Every structure is written in C-alpha cells, then in structure tokens.
Amino acid sequence: MTAISDLAKLTPRDLFNNVGDWVLQYVLKPIGQILLFVVIAGSSISLLALVVGFVLQTDWHGIDILRVPARINLFEQVVRQLPNMFLDGITIGFVYAVIALGYTMVYGVLKFINFAHSEIFMMGAVIGYEVMVRLRDGQLLTTLPPLLVIVLMIAAAMVICGGVAVIVERVAYKPLRGAPRLVPLISAIGVSFFLTDFVRGFQALNRNIFNMPYLTDQIPFLTQRIVLAEGLSTTNTTFIIILSAVIMLVGLNYFVNATKIGKGIRAVSQDQATASLMGINVNLMITITFMVGGALGGAAGVLYGLKTTNVTPYIGFIPGLKAFTAAVLGGIGNITGAMLGGLLLGMLEAFFSALLPYFPALGLGYSDIFAFAVLILVLLFRPTGLLGKKVDEKV
Amino acid sequence: MATYTISENKSPQLNWREALPTIFAIAYVLVVFTLLRSLSRTDLWFPTYSAILFPMFVFSPFIIFALKIPLELRAVLIAIIGLVLMPILGMQDSFYLELITQIAIFAAMAIGLNVVVGFAGLLDLGYVAFFAVGAYLWGIFTSNANTIVRATGAQAAPEMFWLFLFLGVIAAAITGILLGLPVLRLRGDYLAIVTLGFGEIIRILVSNLSNISSNRRNPINITNGAQGLPGIVSPPLPDFAFQAVEGLTNALGLPVNNVRAFTYQLFYYGLVLLVCGLAALIAARLDNSPIGRAWTAIREDEVAAQAMGVPKVKMKLLAFAMGASFAGAMGVIFAARNTFVSPESFSFIQSIFILAIVIVGGMGSIRGAILGAVIVTLLNLQVLKNFSLQINALKNIDWVVPILNFPIRDWPQQLEPARYERFVFGLLLIIMMIFRPSGVWPAKRRQMELQEAMGKEEIPEKEIEADVVVIKPEDLLSQEPKEKP
Q: Which residue spans traverse the membrane (chain B) (predicted)?
C-alpha cells in the first residue's frame, strides 16, 4: 500500500504556468531534436551510400568481392533507391530507438544489461497478434477504426509487457542486487531463454501455432499504397510506426525530464545511495524504470510486427541485439543517445539491405554482420558512445 | 587420508566402520551397473528407468572421488568404472557410449570456458565460435562437399587428423587472441555482448562463405554454406584394433552388430576422455601457477592487479587463447566423430549451453565443470528426451496416471519435454543464480567471494548465540520473584 501512496505523492505537476512554454519545452523541443537526429542519421548514411556508389560504380579496385555486375551502374542505383532507403531506415530506426530506450534506461539505473528485454519486445509482438486475432474473432477487426485497433494493440502490449518486466525484475534481478556484475547478466540470459520457450509453449497450447502472421492484410487502411513521389511509395503502416514512435519518445522525454518520478529515476541513476538518503524510494524507482522500459519494449514489438508482419517466439534475439547496439552507439545510459543510435543503426541497416544485393559475391546473408561490426567498432574507438560521457572507473 | 592411517601400520587392520562408505560406494556402482545391464529396450518403462539409472551410473565416479580413501585407490576405482564398466555398457547399448562421449566433449569445452569466465572473469558469450573454428578446420579439409579445397585438390589425408588436432588448437588460440585484442579495454558486461556479436559473426560467416545460394555467383565455396559439410573423415585405425574389439566383444558374450562403427565409438570415447583429462590437468596446473594467480587478481580487481604489476594485456590474451584452444581441439574431434558439421551446431544457444555447464558446476571450479557437463548434458540429451519417449510409449497403451486419474493421452502433444530445453536451461540459470551462484561444486575461493559480495558471509551462528545472552520478557518476570526470598 505504501507504493500507491508514494505514487500519489509523486503525481506530476506542471512546472510551467504558461501553456505555451510547456508546449515549447516538452513537445516542440523534443520533436525538433528527433527531427535533427533524423536529418543527421539520414544525411550521414545517405552520404555514405552515395560515396560507396560513386567509388564502386565502375571500378572495384581489384577487390573481387566488391565487383558489381557489368551492366549495373551502382551510383545510379543508389540514387534511385535513396528515398526508399531513407524511409525504410527511419521506420526501422524508430523501432530500434524505442527498444534501445528499454536497455538504456535499465542500464542507467542498475548498470546492468537487461538481456531479457529482447524477449519482452517479442512478447509485445505476440500480444499485438493476439489482440488482432481476438478482434477478428469478435468481428471487430474490420469494423473498428484502424487507428483504434492499433491503439488497442499497443496499449495491451504496453500494459502486459510492463507488468512482465516488473515481475521479471522482482523475481530474477532483485535478489541479485549487489552481486558481481556477471551474476544478474547470467540470470537475465536465463530469463530470456525461459520467456522464449514460455511464449512458444503458450501459443502452441493456445492456438497450436508457431508463426504468428499479423492480419494487416485484412485492414485495407494499412496495406493501401501511398505514392509519395515518383518511384517512392509506402503504406500507412510506415506513418503509423513513425508517429507512434515519436509520440512515445516525446512522452518519455516528458516523463523523465518533467515529472517527479522522472527526477527520481535520474537521481537513482546518478547515485543510488545518495538518492535514497534524499528520501527517494530506490526500489520503487527501479520498478518504475523496468515498467516503463518494458512498456516501451512491448509497444516496439507491436510496431515491429506491423512492419515485418511475421512474428515468431524467436524474433526477439536479433532486433534486441541491434537495439542494444543502438543504445551503445548512442552512449548507454543516455536516453537521447538511444534515439540517435537507433535511427543511425536503422539507416545503416537499410543501407546494407539496399546495397548488398548488388554485390553477387556477398549477398543479403551478411546484412546482420554489420550491426555487430558497428557494435565492436564503437566499443573499440568510442566505448562511451556518440553522446555518452566518460565515466572513470572507481578504484 | 585419515581413514586409512591404520593400513599404514605393519599389520593392516581394516577399520570396518571407516571402510563402510567405500564398501557402500562400490556396492552402489555394482548395483546400478547390474540394473542398467538388465534393462531391456522393449520394456514399457525403459525410458524412465534408463533416465534414472544412467545418470546414477555417471555420477558414481564423483561419489568415488568424494570418498576419504587414498588418491591411488580412488583413481583405480574410477578407471575401472570408466574403462571397463562403461565400454561393457556401450556394447550392450551404444547410445550410452554416445552420451558419455558428448558429456566429455562438453566437459572439455566447459573447462576451457571456465578458464576464461571462471579464472580470468571474462564472460564470453560466443565461446562456441572457437569450437566452430576447430570443427570447420577439419571439415573444410576433408569433407566431400564441393569446396575450394576439394576443387584445388588440397584435401587432407585421414592420417593427418593428429596434425590437424594440433592445428585446431593453434587456430582456435589465434582466433581467441584476435577476439581478445579489440575487447581488452572493455568491462565485463560490454565484453559479454561483444563476444556474443563475435560468435554470431563467425556463425554468419560460415553460413555465407559459399556459392550455394540463390542469385549468388561467388566463385569461392569455402564452408558450403548453410547446408554444412558432409562426409568428414575419421582418422584410420590399425586393423588389430578392430580384431581386438571383435575378439573382446565375443569373449564377453556381447557381440555388436557393426564392429567397425563400435571400434570408432570406443576410439572417440577414449580420445575424448584423454583430451578432457588433459584439459582438466592443464587447467588445474594453470590455476595453481603464477598465471592462475594473475588471472584471479585481474578478476577480483583489474586496476589493483595492474598496479601490482600484473601484465593485464598478456594475461587476458592468454586466458582467451587457453580457453579457445580446448574448444578448438574438441571441434576437430567433433567434426571427425559426427562426419558432418553445419552452422546450426554453432548457434548462440550452444554457447549458452556451455555457459550453463560452467554456471551449474561452479565458476572457477574444474571438478564443477565436469560435474556440470554431466548434469546439463544428461538433462538435455537423455532425461528430457526420455521423458518424451516415455510419454509417447504410455500414450500408446492408453495409460492413466493412478492417483490423479489423468489419462496420459490428454497430455498435449505441444508439451513434449524434449522440445523445451530453453525453458529448462533458462530456469536452471535463474535458479542457480538466485540460490547458488557459486555452483553445485564450487571452488572454495569463488564461493567465499560471492558470499562476501552478496552480504551473506557465513557467520557461524553458534558462536553468536554464545556471545549474545537472549533475555526473554517472561524470564525477567519470572526472575524477580525468585530473587526476593
């Protein structure tokens, strides 16, 4: 009961009397920041693509595996594909950014890699599928407004995944506070494996299925193609993903920077002992961090499901690893950094997916290597990430 | 040793009471062995019996090892179990020999990972990559797949197995150093993720370095891609080995169907045991050497270790190289024994599987790694599978669980135990971390460290009870009237 009364005490209050200032501070500024990141990520990766296309268009410099078939002009192809690549990269980048927030928030507070976050994300995708199927069974999928369907999916995923993340923290991490760093990490790996098979078993018993294809094709609104420009078309799903991700990022920004709970979380992430001396309920803050991180992960799962439309209990691992890479790239523990890292990594992935098919010696099979290569390179040359601060190790 | 002080006297008088555990242990081994021998595959309850008895049998060397009798005697008893009883069981049912070989392979790898994780404290989540290096080394050079090696006629002769065993060790050690170099600066959990990424890179590389894929015209086929490398050869064995095995099996009255295959099984069993023993010996000697102490120092406090003059870079690289080399050797043996390797054998779950062995056994404990290999491998390869078999066998006869009155036919097909190894291992890791992070058979030092860190230092309770006088309220009340008179 104490937890609830504490929550009541910590109800967010507006710090600004002036609504205009408030909007500027907590809506326009973060959106501007996100836009800036989109521009940075988009332009840098586009530039990279153009340079690669230009350098390799005619001459492969004696490196056999970089040889492009003679009839293809790589530079032209890159220019033609650039808008699509950009849109694709931004979409998946936002999904990575939302997942990366879960990693980075937990790391900020507990200094530990929540390996199970990828499975929370996977559960979100599965819950989105469940909601869709249940709506269809109730004849509501096509009658309800499409946006409401998606809001329902995301809301269900957020609630359940937030709860699961809190339970996981209570059961598997809380007893291990203060243990050597590897102990909770191994426990988290255990949770990740456990959840994978738990969901698989649950869905096998529940529906006797392993693949859970999203029913997006039953909602015309989602599959209808929209021609943005010559040779560039997309579906409403893309916009929904980007919009929901932006709303969540802005909301999180508000939550962390403007509410008392957010302040508490920041205090705990800076110094747990001092924060507890200042009267902050450290355990509650950690629980809330897991809840928020889990909710974001669940929502990202739904968005990922909407994008790829095929969900299995095993989808968590690779996107989870990529999102972790994104968090490290931006500077782990840094919320803004996670957004930048996610967008950059998404763009990079789109870049490789667009370019690799032109190299017959390589092929798409290698596209996953690049995320890991980026991770290793970042940790080699800038272990604190792009926006991270250097933290000296205490002796 | 204390037990046998009497036998050191000139008139050896056995103290029967002190010899009782030994007698019980030997009786236990013989009873379990006889029961295992008497099992018949046609029996309805065979999977359950075998899933209970075989682990009991495999645990027997550990029971013998724990006896308080001279080391030589224990060694002889364990050798009898390993070199006489086990092959006899193998003659009866070669699956047991397969199982024990798998256990030894994983035990050797767990010992290697233990050097990296347990001794030096560097969590490696991509350990299986080194295993892959060894396996693919022998695989690429002897497979009958149409790889670049075959195309250029550079294939290795089967006799070169021993050379390649050595080369596998070297190649894996070099890979270990190559992985170690970039990640030296990283802290524990970052390191874990980078090694995970490294393991995945190796897996993606071996599944892509080929010309076998749609719309790909890579001229060079190195690993044969996701299809894997079939037809890997075994080293040749001398003819007398086959004759000896045939003679032996006939003499024991347990003729095997395929003498050739069985001889190879025995050969791999022996080889793997040998390598595993060697690995354990090397790891134990290293642990007690200046190198081992340097690793411990780095594990406990990197900065302090450096300040005391421990060469951090060299020691970390050595840990990676040592750990990797055991996996490299086992990779070569694995490829030869399996005659087939594919990228699927080297996925992330395999790394976690080996890590689970180390965790269950106890980080930094060699005997723990071996025991962990027994527990985890048997759980994965025998117990879970046998439960599935048992359920299916019971379904066939429409069996009903007696007291619960639950018809086994209603047990859902989807809940086959053998398919839930992730569930079981995940749970195992969590439970181990929460309740016994030092493992089932930990190294002393490691156990103390963990207890200290978790604030659970073993406070001898009795001493405290003696120091603190507990005064209950009712005592005070009852004492007062007593003093008055």
A: 19-36, 48-67, 73-91, 103-123, 129-149, 161-184, 190-209, 266-286, 317-340, 352-379, 423-441
- Residues A376 and A370: their CA atoms lie apart, in Å, by 10
Residue B81 resides in a domain: no
Q: Which residues of A193-219 are buried (b: 16+ CB within 10 A; e: fewer)?
A: bbbbbbbbbebbeeeeeeebebbbeeb
Q: What is the DSSP letter of B236?
A: P
Fold of A2-8+16-381: ABC transporter involved in vitamin B12 uptake, BtuC (1.10.3470)
Name the residue among A18, A88, A238, A370 with its Cα closest to residue B205. A370
State the DSSP string of B90-101. HHH-HHHHHHHH
Burial B339-355 (b: 16+ CB within 10 A, else e): bbbbbebbbbbbbbbbb
CA-based end-to-end distance of chain B: 60
The 10s digit of each residue's pLDDT in A279-327 is: 999 999 999 999 999 999 999 999 999 998 889 999 998 899 899 889 9
Burial class for A357, CB neighbours closer than 10 Å (0-12, 13-18, 19+): middle
Note whether ipTM > 0.90 here. Answer: no
Residues of B with CB below 8 A from A113's CB?
Answer: 189, 192-193
B185, B217, B454: residue with CB nearest A383? B185
DSSP string, B341-372: B-GGGGSHHHHHHHHHHHHHH-TT-HHHHHHH
Q: DSSP string covering B126-192, please? A: -THHHHHHHHHHHHHHH--S--HHHHTT-PPPGGGHHHHHHHHHHHHHHHHHHHHHHHTT--HHHHH
Closest CA to A124 of A160, A88, A157: A157
Chain A nearest CA to B73, separation (Å) = 38
Give residues 48 to 67 of A whose Cβ lies within 8 Å of B: 64-65
Pick among B122, B213, B363, B414 to test the A interface (most A CBs inside 10 A): B414
CB neighbourhood size of B43 (10 A): 13
- What does the pLDDT read at residue B215? 46
Q: What is the pLDDT of residues A62-83, one digit of tens each?
A: 666 666 666 777 788 888 888 8
User: By the CB < 8 Å criterion, does A375 face chain B?
Assistant: yes
Domain ranges in chain A are: 2-8+16-381
Angle, CA A39 vertex, CA A37 and CA A40 arms, to 5°: 65
Split into its structural domains, chain B has a count of: 1
State the Cα–Cα distance between residues A29 and B437, nearest whole angstrom. Answer: 47
What is the SS3 assignment for A227?
A: strand
Chain A residue numbers touching B437 (CB-CB < 8 A): 176, 179, 183
- Torsion of the alpha carbons at A7, A9, A14 and A16, rounded to the nearest 10: -140
Give the model confidence (pLDDT) of A214-232 as tens digits: 988 888 888 888 887 777 7
Q: Chain B closest CA to A60's CA: distance in Å?
A: 15
Domain span at residue B178 reads 93-463
Nearest Cα of chain B lies from the Cα of A72 at a distance, in angstroms, of 15
Query: Which residues pair with residue B341 across a beta bridge?
Result: B229
From CA B236, how far away is CA B310, in angstroms rounded?
Answer: 46
SS3 A3: helix
Cβ neighbours of A190 in B, within 8 Å: 425-430, 433
Residue of A209, A366, A168 whose CA lies nearest to B434: A168
Contact status of A190 with chain B (Cβ, < 8 Å): yes
Q: Which among B329, B262, B324, B260 is positioned nearest to B104, based on CA atoms? A: B329
Residues of A in contact with B194 (CB under 8 A): 375-376, 379
**Percent of chain A scored above 70 by pLDDT?**
89
Is A113 in contact with B189 (Cβ distance < 8 A)?
yes
